[in-house]
Amino acid sequence: xxxxxxxxxxxxxxxxxxxxxxxxxxxxxxxxxxxxxxxxxxxxxxxxxxxxxxxxxxxxxxxxxxxxxxxxxxxxxxxxxxxxxxxxxxxxxxxxxxxxxxxxxxxxxxxxxxxxxxxxxxxxxxxxxxxxxxxxxxxxxxxxxxxxxxxxxxxxxxxxxxxxxxxxxxxxxxxxxxxxxxxxxxxxxxxxxxxxxxxxxxxxxxxxxxxxxxxxxxxxxxxxxxxxxxxxxxxxxxxxxxxxxxxxxxxxxxxxxxxxxxxxxxxxxxxxxxxxxxxxxxxxxxxxxxxxxxxxxxxxxxxxxxxxxxxxxxxxxxxxxxxxxxxxxxxxxxxxxxxxxxxxxxxxx
Length: 349
Hints:
CATH superfamily of the largest domain: ATP-grasp fold, B domain
CATH class of the largest domain: Alpha Beta
Low-confidence stretches: 335-347
Mean pLDDT: 91
Distance between the termini: 31 Å
Radius of gyration: 20 Å
Largest sheet: 6 strands, antiparallel
Shape: globular
Number of helices: 11
Oligomer: single chain
């Protein structure tokens, strides 16, 4: 089959988080070729008509979607998927509507709340009217200011955590910080506690929740917020990068917690009608309550990222996972070996 990998347009001047999509595209291309497919790569721009024309000329059978932004804007992530739907082109991962819903973090939080999925309280977004539909909280507490659209911890750092503040104090900060956060941001109640990532992979018998991973904040002092910020993910010279490992081994006392995390992750998959693969990020507070932070409908597929690490822990070969993602997108593919070989993975989440 002829498979086109659609990804962001990247230049040498782009930041490490943007450059990473090229590592993903290279790894996915190798896996697809090993499955017997003919592979091409296409950079996605706002000239979506040209992309449609190129796909038609190339007689492409399906698209492996790795688009995370267009023109550096995460808020445009869903546009190529609507174009693929319009031409009835099979593609991997979440459908266009789901990608739009999950990529807008406050919209996703509203859907989680409506479904009874616990997510931290929030203020904003700015700009927007989200607060007008909810009763503002007057309680003081700790908040973290995040981008509405951008992922990969863009704009996150120690300055993002606001201590001992109420709604009236937080709201003006959103307008001030929005330009550094993709133009739109919100404040979320900061949950002090443990952080978990749960990856999910489609399979012939339905979605498979992969082994839970916990992010460990090693050597963090009392004045350092325990968050996976931009430096922890991308700055190889930073303390945070080298002191936020993930772990998959837990004490027996965590058995119930791990079960509840898996159940909640599967609930998110079902409620948002996810496809192919996804990751759900959690915080667990000191009382053991689960809080869903974000649902990532297209988590990083680089061999050194968290999804590949979860595959390795589950004993699922990277090539097999790519085949399963392809199949769940409705793209025919050659059968992969039933023998489960570990994927090579380490590094960031």
